[in-house]
Amino acid sequence: MSRERALHLRWTTWAVLPAVPLVFVTGCGIWDKDRAAEAEWPEQAVARVVVDVRPDRPVQPGKPIRVDAHDGRLYAVRLTGPDGRVIPGGNAAGDTSWSNSEPLAYNTKYTLTASAVDAYGLTATRTESFTTLSPEAEVHADKVLPEPGSTVGVGMPITVGFDRPITDPGRRAAVEKRLAVASSVPIEGAWGWVDDSTVRFRPKDYWPVGTRLSVVTSLIGVDFGAGVYGGEGKPLAFQVGDAVVATVDAKAHQMTVSRNGQPLKTLPVTAGKAGFETRSGTKVVLGKEAHVLMDGTTVGIAADSSDGYRLDVYWATRVTWSGEFVHAAPWSVASQGSANVSHGCVGMSTEDAHWFYDQVKLGDLVTVVNTDSGKAMEPIGNGYGEWNLDWDDWVGHGTTGAVTTTTL
Predict the structure, then answer these.
(1) Quick check: helix, strand or coil at residue 260?
(2) Considering only CA atoms, which of 70, 63, 64 is closest in space to residue 26?
(3) Contact between residue 260 and residue 276 where contact means Cβ atoms under 8 Å apart
(4) For residues 112 and 131, what is the distance between their CA atoms, to the nearest angstrom?
(5) Distance between the two ends of the chain, CA-based, in angstroms?
(6) For residue 81, is it within any domain?
(7) Domain end marker among 103, 131, 159
(8) Max CA separation in the chain (angstroms)
(9) Is 370 left (phi over 0), alpha (psi -120 to 50) or beta?
(10) Is the pTM of the predicted complex or chain greater than 0.85?
(11) Active site residues
């Protein structure tokens, strides 16, 4: 071939890697026109395209496909599914390697075409078709909280529940790594398991007011063994509203409510009497009910005992699953501000309970101090009690340690 041959590359419109300049880098240095004048041009490209898939073996979707150029540079890679959609990807090592950045689907045929150029300007192209594996069963994140699009308080953790138990530490770690949290500002947090099928993300400190967050819960490609793989997840995006914090002083019989650090009101209240003491510690608002029928038998109090009750209760703000509320208690107004006479709830006048009900939202904080019994809020299992653990203890409930959220 003539040494006066012009170097000319025709770039395809679907190239996903940077265009290669007309000075080419080889393993031994730069090929320039002076050296080209002294060498014979090869008839075929020196570059080779290497792909880490085999058409006769199903591909694991969670493992990125890797394409490498040997003795040259990649200049175009195209990975498509049966619908023709291009799977995104990018450089893994300069312009000599490429990997897809999006997990592939199960039981799907894909076609990969990649081209490399060598120092002589000659191109080599390789096309491979392959099929991803088909799981025998899948694990899904079937419960994701808070609700998408909601505005929550600064104490609201992110909860992801699965439709199968996950107990193996290695598989828990794989799950935690795939559950990606992004926020409008970087925030340190950690995943922690509260039971065999539920994991929560709690920030080190309360969420900053106004934070926007999103969570990716797809487990596509996570291998749970015995032919079971992770499935698609549910998208989640929410935001953090004002920091509404209520502090109940059981000894002073009052509750102080603040918003964003500014006091709003101090209300006279009654807390749990002897034998029914209100749990001390920090609780998170779990929900609100304008009207609820409270029956003592649901918490183990016999209907015919002197402590038995069955009452229509209004403006009830729930803080534990076991039955603690902040609610209207017009029958105990005479004791509010001076004595603890309830069965564990925080009671107040109907007017005050209605006002409090209107101030709070899911994820706001209610902290109880100065109780007599030492009965403490459970850190796990009775609501969102994780704030009663110090940071190191909470991190210990997970497998991957503390992380910093990516930025939206």
Answers:
(1) coil
(2) 70
(3) no
(4) 11
(5) 54
(6) yes
(7) 131
(8) 108
(9) left
(10) no
(11) 327, 345
pLDDT at 94: 62
Chain segment 130-144, per-residue pLDDT in tens: 999 999 999 999 999
Q: What angle do CA 148, 152, 156 make, to 5 degrees?
A: 100
How do residues 86-113 score in pLDDT, each as one tens digit? 999 987 556 899 999 988 999 999 999 9
Residues 98, 170, single domain; the answer is: no
Pairwise CA distance, residues 38 & 246, whole Å: 83
Over residues 142-196, the pLDDT tens digits come to: 999 999 999 999 999 999 999 999 999 999 999 999 999 999 999 999 999 999 9
Residues 34 and 112 in one domain: yes
- Nearest alpha carbon to residue 233 among 348, 140, 359: 140
- Those residues with Cβ within 8 angstroms of residue 382's Cβ, 6 or more apart along the chain or in another chain: 320, 321, 322
| ω into 146 cis (within 30 of 0) | yes
What's the structural domain count of the chain? 3
Q: Is residue 7 part of a domain?
A: no
Whole-number average pLDDT of the chain: 89
pLDDT at 220: 93
Pairwise CA distance, residues 206 & 243, whole Å: 9
Please report whether residue 325 resides in a domain.
Answer: yes
pLDDT for residue 40 is more than 80? no
CATH number of domain containing 190: 2.60.40.3710
Q: Are 333 and 353 a contacting pair, CB within 8 Å? A: no
Q: Are 141 and 161 in contact (CB under 8 A)?
A: yes
Check whether residue 169 and residue 125 sit in a common domain: no
**E-only strand ranges, 220-309:** 223-225, 228-230, 236-240, 244-249, 254-259, 262-268, 281-284, 287-295
- Is the pLDDT at 49 greater than 90, yes or no? yes
> CA-CA distance, 34 to 12, in Å (whole number)?
28
Has residue 11 been placed in a domain?
Answer: no
Of residues 10, 52, 356, 387, the one with CA closest to residue 202: 387
CA dihedral 187, 189, 191, 195 (to 10 degrees): -120
What is the domain extent for residue 379?
A: 244-385
395 is written with which tokens? 């991190």
Tokens of 382: 């009775």
